[in-house]
Amino acid sequence: MLTKAAPPSTNGGWPNCWSPRLCINCSQSSKNRGVKPTLDCRLNGTKPMFANRNFVDILAHSKIYQDYEKAFTDATGLPVSLRPVESWQLPHRGKKSENTFCALMAQRSGTCAACLRTQEELSQNAREEAHSVTCYAGLCDTAVPVRLGENLVGFLQTGQIFKRKPTEAQYGRVTKQLMEWGHEAADSPELREAYFSTRVLTRRQHEAVVTLLRIFAQHLSAVSNQVLVRQQNAEPPMITRAKDFIGKNQGEALSLGQVAKAVNTSTFYFCKMFKKATGLNFTDYVSRTRIEKAKNLLLNPNLRVSEIAFEVGFQSLTHFNRVFKKIVGESPTDYRGEVASAA
Fold first, then answer.
1. C-alpha distance across the termini of the chain, in Å
2. Pick from 300, 281, 150: which is nearest to 221 by CA?
């Protein structure tokens, strides 16, 4: 799908930056220019846990994502970013593969606001499937949704490309708009060179790039729970011991107080530190650990789903089915059938 982002509204020749937190890439403060931002987890009913950008940070720093980002950029020459739903930053800002024209535009608050409007457009329209948006300058960005079970947690995004060769007439319209916004470097040699040096992809090439994003988004969604459960980057020794205790006793009834006692700390302090280190509350982490083990046990066709549920620590088959679908995105039976058919 493709839409064209509307140009930002103006106020005395300058586009609105919506709110101070939207313009963290701008060189000028957007205070008092505010239209209330709409990029908020409330738009799609996202629960607070899934709105926590710490989760996307964990995925973005995982080896599987780092390897993919490098391979994608090496193969295509394009930037790719994993960003949370509730993001108010330009996703490719500062990357080595960032488009030079886009980097120049991000240096001024007026054009930065226009770029952020494009990000908002993508966030609104890429929640269910891949979506592309063309900005005021004619460059195209594409985002693909990344899910954790049934929940949208972020987007894989690439772009800053043309889908057809730019013309002098098109560049003239862009520079005219920039001058109306008060951009001092409008039609400078540096800006012209950057604009006409932007990558141009054919329709077939662009479709191939989107397919790569879509395939990896699906794979990232499938392994995200595993990455989240196993994440151990610079975590306190107390948290490592707690995870080890949970892993060894996940088949039993586990309480927050019980685990806190096992690592010699108070329940309140443990709860606070565990959430800070993992991005998850205690109950959700335990559920995810149990579901990860259940996924492995489901590979054994001789075990009934009910047996697996009780083996990994759930006291109710109904509760197990509900939690499994929430985390994995499908029922245990459907998951088992899908894995068996792929074998």
1. 33
2. 150
3-state secondary structure of 195: helix
pLDDT (tens digit per residue) in 184-199 = 777 789 999 999 999 9
Q: Rounded to whole angstroms, how far apart are CA atoms 180 and 12? A: 10
Nearest to 37 by CA among 109, 128, 123: 123
- Per DSSP bridges, beta strands 151-161 and 14-15 are unpaired
Name the CATH code of domain 233-342 (choices 1.10.10.60, 3.20.20.70, 3.20.70.20, 1.10.3880.10): 1.10.10.60
Cα 135 to Cα 198: distance, rounded to the nearest angstrom: 14
Question: CA–CA separation, 251 vs 313, rounded Å?
Answer: 4
User: Could you tell me the residue ranges of all domains in the chain?
Assistant: 2-227, 233-342
Between CA 338 and CA 332 the distance in angstroms is 10
Report d(CA 197, CA 162) in Å as an integer.
Answer: 10
User: What is the pLDDT at residue 233?
Assistant: 54
Res 32 pLDDT > 50? no
Q: What does the alpha-carbon distance between residue 163 and residue 134 come to, in Å, rounded to a whole number?
A: 9
d(CA 34, CA 198): 32
Residue 94, number of CB atoms within 10 A of its CB: 11
Quick one: CA dihedral 257, 258, 260, 266, positive or negative? positive
Sign, CA torsion 73/205/195/178: negative
Cβ-contact 160, 98 below 8 angstroms: yes
pLDDT > 50? residue 28: no
Question: What phi, psi does 17 have (nearest 5°)?
Answer: -105, 15
CA distance 86 to 119: 11
